[in-house]
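Hi Prof. W.,

I finally got the Arginine--tRNA ligase prediction working! I wasn't sure whether to trim anything, so I left the full sequence exactly as given:
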Amino acid sequence: MTVPSLASSLSAAVTTAAAALPGFVPLVRRSGRADFQADGALAAARTLRRNPRDVAAEIVAALPAGGLVAAAEVAGPGFVNLGLTDTALLAQVAGRLADPRLGVGTPEAGVTTVVDYSQPNIAKEMHVGHLRSTIIGDALVRILEHLGGTVVRRNHVGDWGMQFGMLIQYRVEHPAPVTEAATMRGLALLYRQARAAFDADPAFAERSRRRVVALQGGDPETTAAWRRIVAESTRYFTEVYDLLGVRLTGADAVGESAYNAALPGVAADLADQAVAVTSDGALCVFFDDVRGPDGEPTPLIVRKRDGGFGYAATDLAALRQRVTDLHADRLLYVVDARQSLHFRMVFDTARRAGWLPPTVPAAHVAFGTVLGADGRPFKTRAGDTVRLVDLLTEAVDRAREVVAAKNPGLTGAARDERARQVGIGAVKYADLATSRTRDYTYDPHRMLALTGNTGVYLQYAHARVRSILARADGADETVDPGIVLAPADRALILDLDGFADVLDEVVAGYEPHRLCGHLHRLAQSFTTFYERCPVLRAEPPYRGTRLALCRLTGDTLRTGLGLLGIDAPERL
Ligand code: ARG
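And this is what came out:
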């Protein structure tokens, strides 16, 4: 049985107490002044045309004493401050400990979500933009699944377009030894060389254009060359996902080309329904509220003037397939904020075409830019985009130093694995901890700090808990319902209590940073608790109860970090 949070039990109690006050919506929050504060009386008083303090007093009077609530009083203009009983707090700890799900329910059961994330481009390096999409997407996937949901991962790989003409043509004219070509450096080189030839040599450009036609026409030799390039890139992406510890496999990669066959039907349907119209030879969808700087409407181009299909048509075909064939109840697109207009137009078009029923929400889970120390988009010193592998390798190398300083006894493969867990965890946490729509500055030094809001700090807090439990050596961990709690015990219990509720908040706004904030507060409360309250030196029954609190803290940190895709090693 999932134990409801104290916050929700309290909310229910306040609602019952306010039964005589129509329009009262309890808003129960943690508070610095009491355990919780309820503000709902203010809004209700406005509707009822009454004095808010009188309304609050009525609620206070109607709250049953004992049980859950130890103290209730009117505060400020009409808030209700609420203190909980020690017994209620201790019962909550006991309930959570007995529940392997730590109070987390399955509100997503029966809901299928298709998450579009990562989306690297074939024959191109993955960069920091793909990092954000990959790890935000991965965290959302893990959380939705943990809440009982069904998730279909879609890695919408960029595997189609004009550039393949020049890549294949160059490969055909300059066959590369397979060993070299099989590396990403080989592919990146191919891209640069093909581009240079395309720009410099009109005859090569012409042959490349003919190659595109051959690719579109399914010419066997051309298709084989294309497949080989796709396979090489995919192998490389998989290595990066393994290093990142991201749960994406080849089966989740459904590239843009997978929708080619559906594109003419998409265009025909939109034209038949008059959602799209021909303008200047192109098939376009217009929107009242989308205009360029010149005031002219900016259309979504479904089919270009030359008859070719692009990015928009592919997204429309993918969307229709996700709703119709995959039976999605919700669609998420974890993509750079700069594409927000594109998604607005795609979603709006799909709604008008009836492909996206009103019951199926579609969200562009947009994210901001990663900045360098100079406050500009993160680049190498030479001004190139930073290769994701280089960035990750550097973080793992730095983490190796942090690990070596903390744990000099650890060597060899074990130290390498720990460095990977810490370095990758640091990169992920620094990204996930910022509200996703904001830009953030990439700072490898700060993200690996042992103090502050970092992944390392959380991993360290978890490792400390584990070492306390190891030192307790199997001692009794029973919660005694009769003990008197110290303020630091209470604060820790109340933070532990918020775990399940924060996951609901994460899903409500697709905001993993809320979970980061929660875990960080929890680690801080644990630090204060451990400074102020003796654990191993405490006498029974305090000892057992506090060991139980350590156990619950460790489990919550490990589960929470796991939902962010971050490992929680036993030691740092
Ligand atoms: N491959 C694209 C890029 O690197 C992102 C694709 C986003 N997903 C989508 N369904 N449009 O910019």
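The two ends are 34 Å apart (CA to CA). Does that look reasonable to you?

Thanks,
D.
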